[in-house]
Amino acid sequence: MNLVIDQGNTRTKYAYYQNGVIVSHGVLLNEVIRDFNPLLNGQAPDKAIICSVKNDDELKLVVMPVCKETIVFNSGTPVPIQINYLTPETLGLDRVAAAVGAHSLSGRNACLAIDAGTALTFELIDEHGTYLGGRISPGLQMRFNALSYFTDKLPVAEATPNTPYFGNTTLSSIEAGVVLGIISEIEGAIDCYSSLFKNLKVYLTGGDALYFEKKIKRCIFADLNLVLCGLNRIIEYNAD
């Protein structure tokens, strides 16, 4: 059994994998990570991997004494894709994990991993398993907040289930601009990369994935556990 952990700035997602399938998963706030029990039904995982944007050792102190073998994921950890990036030491580990997850699901097709979270990120992998790079832009809430923060009078808007094609109030105009702008950005990226790579597979993940899944008029696969899937594949790759 494998334990995979993806720790962000405020929350930590984790999952237990058995033979490549999630058997249990959850989300913790980072301030209660010290109370996390890595055992599942009293059983210690054989292997664990920690992917974290934080530099503290609290999560390691909780997990490493319990698990039989723990990988602390970093830029030097072997991964099952070729990284073609000029500054691999600056490449976000969650971006690498998302790319690995998409590659593991796509067969031998080129693939695009889109993470609609705090930031909107795109990771492109060709049919040979080479990570080519991607894009980073502000995510949904960041765009709403920025419009209010950098102006004197614009309010903080929010996304609704039925975004208008054009707004007839300031709030609805902001919503239309932000939400439809992100949809156009995602669909434009898919069209661009699909013209370069035949049979491109597209995977959408992140906190806003389900919101955008229903609005994007392209063939995509929503997978909220794409990063965790990639981390589990990295465990398996290092065990081989």
Structural notes for this entry:
- This protein has helices spanning 58-63, 93-105, 140-149, 170-196, 209-213, 226-239, and strands at 2-7, 11-18, 21-29, 47-52, 69-72, 82-83, 111-116, 119-125, 130-138, 201-205, 221-222.
- It is α/β, with parallel strands linked by helices.
- It has 6 helices and 11 strands.
- Helix content is 31%, strand content 27%.
- The protein has 2 domains: 1-72, Nucleotidyltransferase, domain 5; 74-240, ATPase, nucleotide binding domain (Nucleotidyltransferase, domain 5).
- Strands 6-9-8-7-10-11 form a 6-stranded mixed beta sheet, sandwiched between helices. Strands 3-2-1-4-5 form a 5-stranded mixed beta sheet.
- The mean pLDDT is 95.
Provide keyphrases for this structure.
2 domains, 240 residues, alpha/beta, single chain, Nucleotidyltransferase, domain 5
The CATH class of the largest domain, by name, is: Alpha Beta
Distance between the termini: 15 Å
Count of DSSP H/I helices: 6
Binned, the helix content reads 25-40%
Number of domains: 2
Question: What is the total tally of β strands?
Answer: 11
Strand order of the largest sheet: 6-9-8-7-10-11
Mean pLDDT: 95
**Structural class of the secondary elements?**
alpha/beta
Give the amount of beta strand, in percent.
Answer: 25-35%
- Which runs of at least 5 residues are low in confidence (pLDDT < 50)? none
CATH architecture of the largest domain: 2-Layer Sandwich
**What would CATH call the homologous superfamily of the largest domain?**
ATPase, nucleotide binding domain
> How would a crystallographer describe the biggest sheet?
6 strands, mixed
Give the SSE order as H and E letters.
EEEEHEEHEEEHHEHEH
Q: How big is the Rg?
A: 19 Å
CATH topology of the largest domain: Nucleotidyltransferase, domain 5
Shape: globular
